[in-house]
Amino acid sequence: MSGFHDISEGKVSLSDEAYLSLKESILNGDIAKGATYTQSEIVKTLGIAISPLRAAINKLETEGLIKVLPRSGIQIIDTDFALTRNTYQLRVILEREGLKSYIRSATDEEINNFRQKHIALRNEINSCSSNVLVCEKLAKLDSELHNAFILSLNNQIITKNYLANEDLIRLTRLDRVDLASNEMLLRTNEEHLTLIDAIADRDPVKALESLDTHLEKSIKRAMGLWGF
């Protein structure tokens, strides 16, 4: 995602480090969404220099995670119904195309690997007392599965826009992690398994129906509608 790599030295530049540090602090909630900060406050909080921070701010504003307010500071975007709806709408459009490609290109071994990971996670959800821990594991596996659909398209423009959109979706989920129940986690996991079975059968109609159902329920869960 970053455009700040120092290719000549083969090292990550200070601007790249600042970008990654600030973005991760936003996405994990250390820097509060909806809040406004001065550059000096961010420098003090993250321990980074002002010049690399300015480059990072330009990048993150382009990606839509922050707004630069003249004479006021840097505002972290807040999440609302419209943002949640828009990000998931784009996700549906891109993933449907990616899934059709993935069904044709994925190996049986890769598909079975996803199935085994989900079965193992289902067992962990049933036995684990920490919903937050398994929620993080499910989120990571969710990204791994859905990203595979997009990567199968082998289109850098689509991948770049999809990953930027995923950052926004991650931001909308910040308020939901502590509320996740075992039932919700199990339902999400089972939806993945249904989708994986359809992919394994090389059935595009069934797979697209499973994806549509999963993403429709995902957006409802993102809005706190746990009954879905």
Element string (H = helix, E = strand): EEHEHHEEHHHHHH
Which sheet architecture does the biggest sheet show? 3 strands, antiparallel
Give the overall shape. globular
Gyration radius, in Å:
19 Å
Overall number of domains: 2
Strand order of the largest sheet: 3-5-4
Q: In terms of structural class, how would the helical and strand content be classed?
A: mainly alpha
Instruction: Figure out the total of helices.
Output: 9
Mean pLDDT: 89
By DSSP, the count of extended strands is 5
Strand content: 5-15%
CATH class descriptor name of the largest domain: Mainly Alpha
In helices, the fraction of residues equals 55-70%
Kindly identify the CATH topology of the largest domain.
Four Helix Bundle (Hemerythrin (Met), subunit A)
Distance between the termini: 32 Å
Query: What would CATH call the architecture of the largest domain?
Result: Up-down Bundle
Characterization of this structure:
The chain is mostly helical and 228 residues long. The chain folds into 2 domains: 5-76, Winged helix-like DNA-binding domain superfamily/Winged helix DNA-binding domain (Arc Repressor Mutant, subunit A, Orthogonal Bundle); 81-222, GntR ligand-binding domain-like (Four Helix Bundle (Hemerythrin (Met), subunit A), Up-down Bundle), CATH 1.20.120. Helix content is 69%, strand content 6%. It has helices spanning 14-27, 39-46, 50-63, 81-105, 108-127, 131-151, 156-172, 182-200, 204-222; strands at residues 5-6, 11-12, 36-37, 66-69, 73-76. It has a 3-stranded antiparallel beta sheet. A hairpin with a 4-residue loop joins strand 1 and strand 2 (11-12). Helix 4 packs antiparallel against helix 9, helix 5 runs antiparallel to helix 6 (131-151) and helix 5 runs antiparallel to helix 8 (182-200). The longest helix has 25 residues, at 81-105. It is globular, with a radius of gyration of 19 Å. Mean pLDDT is 89; it is low at 1-10.
